[in-house]
Write a structure and sequence with these properties.
The complex is a heterodimer.
Chain A lengths: L2 H17 L1 H21 L8 E6 L3 H4 L9 E6 L2 H9 L5 E4 L4 E5 L3 H13 L4 E5 L6 H32 L1 H6 L5 H31 L7 H23 L5 H18 L11 H7 L3 H15 L7 H21 L4
Parallel strand pairs in A: 1-2, 1-3, 4-5
Antiparallel strand pairs in A: 3-4
Helix pairs in contact in A: 1-8, 2-6, 2-8, 6-8, 6-9, 6-10, 6-12, 8-9, 9-12, 9-13, 12-13
Chain B lengths: L1 E10 L2 E11 L4 E5 L6 H8 L7 E6 L2 E2 L2 H6 E4 L11 H9 L8 H7 L15 H13 L5 E5 L7 H16 L3 E5 L3 H7 L2 E6 L2 E6 L1 H8 L3 E6 L9 E2 L2 E6 L2 E6 L2 H10 L8 E3 L3 H9 L6
Parallel strand pairs in B: 3-8, 3-9, 6-7, 7-8
Antiparallel strand pairs in B: 1-2, 1-4, 4-5, 9-10, 11-14, 11-15, 12-13, 13-14
Classes of the chains: A alpha/beta, B alpha/beta.
Chain lengths: 333, 292
Amino acid sequence: MNMRRYFALFSARNREFLRDRTALAWNIILPVLLVIGFAFALSTDDVDLFKVGVVNVTESGNSLPFLQTEHIQFIPINEPQAAITKVERHQLDMLFDPNSQSYWINERSANGYILEKLLQASAHNLQKKAVTGEALRYVDWLIPGILGMNIMFSSLFGVGYVIVRYRKNGVLKRLKATPLTAFEFLTAQITSRLWLIVLVTSCVYFGTNLFVGFRMYGSYLNLLLVLIIGTTSMISVGLLVAARMSSEEAANGLLNLISWPMMLLSGVWFSLEGSHPIAIALSKLLPLTHMIDAARAIMIDGATLMDISPQLVTLIAMSIIFLLISARSFRWE
Amino acid sequence: MLEITDLKKEFRDVKAVDGVSFSIAQGCCFGLLGPNGAGKTTTVEMLEGIIAPTSGEIRYKNRPLGSHFRNEVGIMFQHTALQEFITVREILTLFKNFYEQSKPIEELVKNCALEEFLDRDTRNLSGGQRQRLLLAIALINDPNIIFLDEPTTGLDPQSRRNFWDLLKKLKSQKKTIILTTHYMEEAHELCDELAIMDHGRIIAQGTPRALLAEHFNSAIITLPADDIPDAVREIDGSEVVRTENRAEILSRHIEQTIQSLIAQQIPLNRLQVRSRTLEDLFIKLTGHELRT
């Protein structure tokens, strides 16, 4: 690869992106508005149902009057340690273990205080284990989804659609008439969009973080790695669409056909837990699902690289497969 | 410099180019003419290495087209968009970086008269400015061989003349130029040799002078139709062809024809005599009116 040719095209593509004020604003303003909007619109905890995790619930345990209380959702728990973390994050209001006669509440949770009074009224000699931690808000859960969705649109349309437009209006034909190789061209397109997405996403994240203050229990380096690998996989999908198409209308349709199911099935807005098995199976075929899962695991659960290795391996495999197919099938004209 | 042998290109059932052979010498300005759909652009794009021929051979400096050709060729396509949100200076720098050897940008800016819009976004150029920029891009690698596909289509007469001046400068530098055009005046002004294509084949080839001499031995005398009585169908053995308000007489011996007109007391004060042009030749050979 000739680096001079590569850098010339890389830098030209960056200028095109940064000077297109409308597209740039769209890339930044949309996610910022969504994050700020959700942070303030859902700033009050309006869930009126109490959630209590019950460890290894048994027949005898079920007979406890507390477990018959109405308007409380009792959730069976098999992994107490993970459930304690949820109490810390206010995702569970209380964790109750009838076998050891112990309960965990978050001392900062008003719901936890009320549940404790209810529990003490129906049982005695219980062992209290207090935990502390800030509540996990919907916006903390949502931010990886919104940024992931923005990355998906920027990758698919910023690479896929642009290359199809280049092909249709003759830019690719003009470039083909120079010594530039297809490999140099594609590498410049991928890396330019990749670094611009990393830049824009980081700005949006840290900018909105100043106002919203996201919970972040993992490593920023790991998050950056997920961002880079996830974005590469998304760009490779864009390249796959752009490899041969020359109709902007058809490309637009196909890109929408790919992006809308990804937005709905990849857990951007809501968790797919409990969804139909077919929906869950389909979601696993989409790179956005793995990227958002990995980012949420890092931010909310403090997951390590080892914890998110299945998602990373999947994203890398998808990137390699899509890039190989698009590189082999790429046509200038 | 460029040898083309039995070149063919088929698109599904359509034979766009059907066995074209010719050669172009170093320093020659070669014009490829033909009506729309004649196969000019397909032929030129095969010569440029943009599309692959179905069969036939193209050799540049006795070698098949390859990376050496890419570095030595300059191309100005008929329809080319450029990257947007980039200035003229930046687009020149971009293309300069694609080549191992290149001309100084300042020289191209001066030669192609780009000074006044050098820092303008490529989206905001007029037709003439855009064509001059595309020519500058085609020349950025100081090419040996330059392809110009209808370079002045859509330009006003003044911009076209200015563009011709630029091409004449290139000719004076002994660059080899392959030009396709709809304008016969342009071909006459610039080309050393012409090939006229129709239905994917070359139907005539030679210098403009030789082609005209080969196909015509007469001039055209034109008069207002009102000046020749309707009863006069023939002058000096030549038919009087009436078109709207003009009447045309083909004449092999102009003095003799004029004597006949005087003898029939036809007024000559609005008489025009013109030689046959490439446009006449084109229409005679292809049967097409020129279309843009």
